[in-house]
Amino acid sequence: MKKLLLYIAGLLAVIFIVIQFVPSNMPENDSDISDDLLVTEQAPENIKLLMHQACYDCHSNQTKFPWYAKVAPVSWLLENDVKEGREELNFSEWATLDARKKIKMLSEIGEEVEEKKMPLKIYTVIHTNAALSAEEIELINDWTVKLSDQIMEN
Q: Has residue 147 got a pLDDT over 80?
């Protein structure tokens, strides 16, 4: 029994080492923030801070990849989450959206945050500063409603 456990542990160690050579294709970051939501809409500093802490790693081209983003199989999960997040909503491309799409996205942001669907629970376990308090959720909701109203007026 002990030999079997050692064999399994050795096999798992070899597999772990081998999978480190499988490349991941992490999405590229972009330092150009000219089309970014927080820049183009002149967001208040408290909103900028909250959005960067809770949203921007998955929903922008300004992802801060942690050290474990280079370790398989975690790297594969991160790659998938960031690509999926950017496909759903990429704050770095905000200025390229038309007014109708912006209003729809703002409504969805408020809804997802209020229903605590975003940020993802698995993200907040590791990034505890991304977990939003009730007050922070209210701040984001109020800001998205106000911004949506401003876009409708223009």
A: yes
